[in-house]
Request: fold
Amino acid sequence: GDSVTQMEGPVTLSEEAFLTINCTYTATGYPSLFWYVQYPGEGLQLLLKATKADDKGSNKGFEATYRKETTSFHLEKGSVQVSDSAVYFCALGTGRRALTFGSGTRLQVQP
Amino acid sequence: EAEVAQSPRYKITEKSQAVAFWCDPISGHATLYWYRQILGQGPELLVQFQDESVVDDSQLPKDRFSAERLKGVDSTLKIQPAELGDSAMYLCASSLNSRKPQHFGDGTRLSIL
Reply:
């Protein structure tokens, strides 16, 4: 079945550091890929998405590229801020089915 | 603030009791999802509706959980009787259709004593 694997957290960075959160997937067919962010006590917010190979999703300084050859969708940001502290979820969607999520990676950014 | 409305935000109850959660999706969204998120894990689908019809409830524990979306708009998820292992965040999401991005509510945090 479909699955998503994320790097375990927490990831602790200093402000303005470079961020990478690794995500790999297994899926039948050609999934769409997503990154969601969850702030404490809130639901999930869509951060970015990519629907086909080599697409790059971007939003608020975050980027991720759909790599079919390595089945990966790593999240990157060049300079993190304290306000980026949250839990980040990688997810895939195929056809009309609901999303399959990874287990989440907590990011803590220190001033 | 999330556009998908859920209530209550928090629910504390004792095991063996009945609990119910309510979700009002974004207006016009035909597809509605209920997910369960255990602390430290990603959300997992419980049930998916297309309009008023259930299209996937394969992971719903049907001996104790039920869900309905009678008029194809808002939805209710019920647990009876609740068990200690049901403590989790229950998230509702909606999308224009099943191929469009999902929008999540802020969830209901359930604690079973």
Notes: Chain A is about 0% helix and 50% strand. The first strand of chain A starts at residue 3 and ends at 6. The radius of gyration of chain A is 13 Å. Chain A touches chain B through 21 residues (CB under 8 Å).
